[in-house]
Amino acid sequence: MTRSARRPPGRRFGHLLGAYGLLALAVLLFLAFSLALPDTYPTLDNISAVLSNQSIPALLALGATLPIVTGKFDLSLGYGLGLAHVTTMQLIAVEGRPWPLACLVVVLGGAVVGAFNGVVVEFARINSFIATLGTGSILYAVTGRITGGARIVPGPQGLPAAFTDLYDSRFLGLPVSACYVLILTALLWLLLERLPLGRYLYVIGSNPRAAELVGIPARRHVVHAFVGSGLVVGIAGVLLAAQQRIGNPSVGLDYLLPAFVGALLGSTTIRPGRANAPGTLVAVVVLAIGLAGIEQLGAQFWVIPLFNGATLLLAVGLAGYTARRQARQRRKGPPRTLSDLPKVTS
Q: pTM of the full predicted structure?
């Protein structure tokens, strides 16, 4: 008899509610706003606009998920997004570089920044909050140096159409930016749930001491997580430039809070108690549905930051509660030994 079969009905219901409750909430919110706004909310145009507008916050939330899996936080995400955004505009609109080369440079630059964050956190042994906040401030300074505090506006010729199509085009009826989110979610799911590196990252995040005892190179893998996060930030910066078509040196900070809300709230669903890519996607969908509904109901401007802040507190509280509940269940179960952890092969 399997463990799920032995679980009492009440426990099974609680497990299903914890794993899929947020997904059910997304459906209920969509139905509620559709009933309140039947002429505008459930339309294909609105759904397409929501998917497009929330694609960059979704990418950043998925990027933030990687360090969170290892028990670290990357607070430089918003600053890195702003730098990647204005660097893309600077290379294409001001210096006239070919847009594929500019995009490649920005994405690789994001990976370099992520590697630097990982090295500072793991080898300089600085708390990830402090380290990434410090590097984020440096990135913001570089952004100001590039722009001089002013916006980068393309000339009369504008940006190459092929570049803006990176964000504006459609694929199979969906905004292509939403397709990027689905592809990244699938790749992260494969990495974290099916590949050895993902299992190592989870072990590092849940029990660093045990990871060391079984020979997992924790420092190196944490750096890998930050590199992956930096890559995603670089990609998001390129897409942000293609979307806005104007280099705004302060725009990245607006995306920092929604990214962490999505990543932390996502750790309470699908695989409760652990950060996971499908859960992050579900959390972003819930936030997108809620924000779109609030805006269409005519809420004042201060309601959106109130919504984000309250949701972040709720996400942190739920994530902590879920983690504690998982820990209690593990203590009640049969004791785990080092042989239960993934083995490292040379």
A: 0.88
Task: Report whether pLDDT(328) > 90.
Answer: no
For residue 96, pLDDT over 60 is answered with yes
- In angstroms, the Cα distances linking 69 to 28, 46, 66, 74, 263 are 29, 33, 5, 11, 10
225 vs 228: CA distance, rounded Å: 5
Between CA 14 and CA 10 the distance in angstroms is 6
Q: From CA 307, how far away is CA 311, in angstroms rounded?
A: 6
Q: What is the pLDDT of residue 14?
A: 56
Contacts of 302 (CB under 8 A, 6+ apart): none
The whole-angstrom separation of Cα 268 and Cα 298 is 30
Q: Which residue has the higher pLDDT, 271 or 6?
A: 271
Kindly list the structural domains of the chain, giving each domain's residue range(s) and its CATH number in brackets, ordered by start.
21-330 (1.10.3470)
CA distance 86 to 151: 9
Q: Which two tokens stand for residue 253?
A: 């900070």
Q: How far is CA 30 from CA 22, 57, 259, 295, in A?
A: 12, 19, 21, 14
